[in-house]
Amino acid sequence: MHSRLLLSGLLALGFSAQGQPVAPADTTRSMVPLPAFSQERTRLDQRGLQLLGGWAVSNLLVSGIAYGQTEGSARYFHQMNIGWGVVNLALAGTGYLAARRATRQPLTDRAGNVRRQLSTENLYIFNAGLDVAYLATGFYLLEKGRNPTASAPPARWRGYGQSLLLQGGVLLLFDGFQYVTHHRHGRSLYPLLSRLQLGAGSVGVVLPLGQRGK
């Protein structure tokens, strides 16, 4: 949906732009074979899941060691990090295996690739929204830790809140990076984006005439 709105906006901008016309560009170079496009998308997924798995393992190792050597809010901080490490490692592992299977059976049709591309981009946007919620919850728990009448020890709320701020911040950077990477990769899938031409004082969309659709 996001990409469809973007394409509609580009069309409106191209028809309303003023200035000298810009010569059409050769758009065939921007197009890639659909199986190769599909395989590159799964490769980007695998790389991202490797990063997520590495972050999960580092949480398990560092916080697993520090948990038994700390007390107070620091102990709860590492306890929460261990939980995040377990969940993230499970998600990264299952996702990586699924991406490897997808690499062996790339999508060969444009409609399927478009659906998968939009689904992938929307997934990272949704995850980024969850990351913002984690950050907000972290700030809430820190504030709750300052309340002496809280139902749990203040040190627990502070430790959990600090962990949520760390995990939410890292995941927000990760999901944002993955979205930008996949969005750039997806440009070669949408022919209209490759026809966007910029000139001095003008922006336009080059629409070829007199060519039969394949």
Automatic annotation (TrEMBL):
Species this chain originates from: Hymenobacter glacialis
Signal sequence range: 1-19
Name of the protein in its database record: DUF5683 domain-containing protein
Keywords: Signal
Name of a matching Pfam family: DUF6992
